[in-house]
Design a protein that fits this description.
Strand content: under 5%
Shape: flat
CATH superfamily of the domain at 56-115: NADH:ubiquinone/plastoquinone oxidoreductase, chain 3
Helix content: 55-70%
Number of strands: 0
Distance between the termini: 97 Å
CATH topology of the domain at 56-115: Methane Monooxygenase Hydroxylase, Chain G, domain 1
CATH class of the domain at 56-115: Mainly Alpha
Number of helices: 7
Length: 166
């Protein structure tokens, strides 16, 4: 029983040895004359623009990447089904129709939400909740403790502005 694993162990050892020897040989044989041009970053002749240290990638980047992975994996599930299609019969066909239907519904949902568009869905302003919302002075619509240009709002100014016309 244990002799069946010997070729696998030998293959693993050869692969590991090849990887280690390749790294050691490249470290020993490479030219060691760095110049300014060799140490500069190069990308199509243009210095690459990087994000500032505190800035992160937009969430949309990750959403598109996750959607690609999800739909790619769902597509990979079609291959084993296609291989065993004849042996699964009608049951396999119905199960795959259900699976593809669910994938299609997920695709329509993502499409409707704007997940497939890089710019994102068009944002509409929220509807006004109260008919008097547009007629209030700007000091009332600001959050608590916020005045114009960062000045705090006093209680007297707030009470005077809420009263309206008289």
């Amino acid at each position: 029983m244990s002799t069946g694993y010997v070729p696998i162990v030998v293959l693993g050892a050869v692969a590991a040895l090849f990887a280690i020897l390749s790294i050691v040989a490249s470290a020993l044989l490479r030219p060691k004359r760095p110049t300014v041009a060799k140490t500069e970053p190069y990308e199509s002749g243009v210095t690459p623009v990087r994000l500032p240290a505190g800035e992160r990638f937009h969430v949309k980047f990750y959403v598109v990447a996750m959607l690609f992975i999800i739909f790619d994996i769902e597509t990979i599930f079609l291959f084993p089904w296609a291989v065993a299609f004849r042996s699964l019969g009608l049951f396999g066909l119905v199960e795959m129709i259900v699976f593809i239907g669910l994938v299609f519904v997920a695709y329509l949902y993502v499409w409707q939400k704007g997940g497939l568009e890089w710019e994102g869905p068009e944002r509409r302003p929220p509807p006004e909740r109260h008919p008097w919302a547009g007629r209030l002075p700007p000091t009332v619509e600001l959050g608590p403790g916020e005045g114009r240009l960062g000045e705090p709002v006093t209680a007297g100014a707030m009470a005077g502005s809420v009263g309206g016309d008289g």
